[in-house]
Amino acid sequence: MSYPLQPPFTRRIAAVFLLAWSSLFLPQSSIAQASPPPPQESPAKSDATPQAPAQPPPPTATPSDASSAAELSTRDNPATFKVRVNLVLVRVVVRDGQGNVVTGLKKEDFQISDNRKPQIVSTFSVETPESRKLPASTPAPAGEPESEAAATAAAVAALPQRFVAVVFDDTNMLLQDATSVRDAATRLFAALAPTDRVGMFSTSGQFTQDFTQDRESLKNVLLRLVPRPVAGGGFHECPDISYYQADLIENKHDPQALAVAGEEALVCAFNSDPRMTQAAQQLAQSVSQRVLSSGDAQTEYVYRHMEDVLRRLAVMPGQRILVLVSPGFIVTTLMLESTDLVDRANRSNIVINTIDARGLYTPDLAGDISDPPQDSLRTVGYKSTYRVAAQMAQEDILAQLADGTGGTFFHNRNDIDAGLRRAVAAPAVSYLLGFSPQNLKIDGRYHTLKVTMTNKEKYAIQARHGYFAPRTIADPAEAAKQEIQEALFSQDEIHDLPVELQTQFFKKDEVQARLAVLTHVDVKGIRFRKAAGRNLDNLTVATAIFDENGNFVTGGEKIVEMRLLDKTFDRLSRSGFTLKSSFDVKPGTYLVRLVVRDAEGSQMAARNGAVSIPF
What we know:
With 615 residues, the chain is an alpha+beta fold. 27% of the residues lie in helices and 27% in strands. The protein contains 13 helices and 25 strands. A hairpin with a 2-residue loop joins β4 and β5. The longest helix is centred in the middle third of the chain and has 38 residues. The protein starts with 16 loop residues before the first helix and ends with a strand.
């Protein structure tokens, strides 16, 4: 399974200045129109039908002389679309002792420490599913019927905000685990909001359902959930050594574990002949090496498929959650791989919730009833001890993944369906805290975060446990590109620059439409550099269009080069200017993401918009 991180973007040739001035930079009054006119098409495209009554074109700003032509220009930039740590955002969910979300909290109720140093909470907001609804960025045409307006509003309200990847560890599940998990998962769909998109994946790679709101597709995928061990099963070697015991023998050099395996080999292979003790030890050593290698291969197989899911989830435009449903597995020496999974998730702002697929269980001394062990009388006690220890150790990886990413580990409970609903569904209330790290070193190191309550209440706090500081990048252009890319594949809004987003569209025919994204910039809020009598700055304007399931459709990037004389600067300070980017799309409902960054002040703005183009 492979997912490109950076999809190709449409490239367009920059227009000459006079055309760019008249069609791209519109006066402020053009933004306020209730129904902007459709873009002018060439005669070859005259079959397009506008979505609003024809209106006279708005007046356009015209340069007063030839010298002003060099003051403001745009050019398309080949776009190759991380989080800015100038402001670190921490989403917090607070629950009481009964697991209920705590509401009504204020900024003064929270404390944040960065590497054990207290920080000042500079921004605070309360988020609910209602508050995160995307605004429609296209004004309703005059005279639009109420039924069409309601349909458009409903389509926009259902655009995705949260992306949940549910990963079923079918390589490690037993048959009874898979049966109970499959039954519980069918009951989680009632907890999903219209703005949730769910994908289902397996660690065996045998089934994949990309992010969707189609509940029937998700239910059909669940029917394919059965155990699929990579290392095989149902066959007992002589001696019968588990992955856990093999780890004790090979990695931890446990003499007792080797002696138990040797005793079992002497019984099953040499009929308890004491003269063959050395040969039995050699056989036990050989089998333990083979079992360890097979078990490590299965664990790495699970890691690789989880990495694929993380890569896919990392490019989805919104909140990102991965839910791992697994009985757990032994990590042995593969600690680096598990740490790498946590790092990948933290870098992509992905929270991992884990659910122990075994539910509420008691250690099974006799092993799997469907595949009973073949223990001898002299080794049965030791082997039972190893089975109990292995069952306890399996959950360590689940606790590590959840704790390392600010998620929740559901275990020792039989209501797996309730655990799934809590892991997947959006909380009724969450709190978004922001702070600016003091004396931050640009060294790429990991910073630990801790959120506590000032009132010392014994609440359960779910929040990310850290972030990575940016690395020093010699090329400023590369640093800017990384900032823009991460902001583009998010839904967090940034307000460093005064920017407004609006969209308009018209249909060319029944299957094609033209979507225009208008970016209005208030020049007064930009930090210019004065040189040679001019006000200098460059703006990078990046636009991305996502479909109703969060898949990238198209996008582009423009560079606005400003070399403004004082007279032009004063005029634009009063009116601002509007930049237009146009895209060919099919009718449908789209999420529009706009990111603007200036070169001189390194400030950014990020806006969300939504548009529904009727079929």
